[in-house]
Design goal:
- There is one protein chain.
- With 102 residues, the chain is mainly α.
- The protein is built from five helices and no strands.
- Helix 2 runs parallel beside helix 5 and helix 3 packs across helix 4.
- It is globular and about 45 Å long.
- The chain starts with 13 loop residues before the first helix and ends in a 19-residue tail after the last helix.
Length: 102
């Protein structure tokens, strides 16, 4: 039995690829990147040590490690990254012009 798959090239934002509205997709992409950076920062720490370092409850560490993106807003992620010793910078750039569909 042969199974065929169709491969579709990503636009660069998995959330857009999933059909999420562009503004929300951009916000989710930012939050997911901050979460990944934070997860890497505490990867070698057990839950209790990570919680002490970030000055949060252990439940927050568990939610972070399980990727529960809806439990984290950008403000919280920035504060946690700063507690982990990171400098956080935000950049924005003009989106490429889109061709209208006439």
């Amino acid at each position: 039995m042969t199974t065929e798959f169709e491969i579709t090239r990503s636009c660069g934002n998995v959330f857009l690829d999933m059909g999420i509205e562009p503004g929300r997709a951009a916000a989710l992409s930012v939050r997911s990147q901050l979460m990944l950076d934070l997860k890497h920062a505490i990867a070698r720490l057990d839950r209790a040590k990570a919680a002490r370092k970030l000055k949060v409850d252990g439940k927050v560490i568990t939610a972070l490690r399980r990727g529960r993106i809806d439990e984290f807003d950008v403000d919280l992620l920035v504060r946690l990254l700063m507690r982990a010793g990171f400098e956080v910078r935000v950049t924005a750039s003009r989106a490429p012009a889109r061709r209208s569909r006439a």
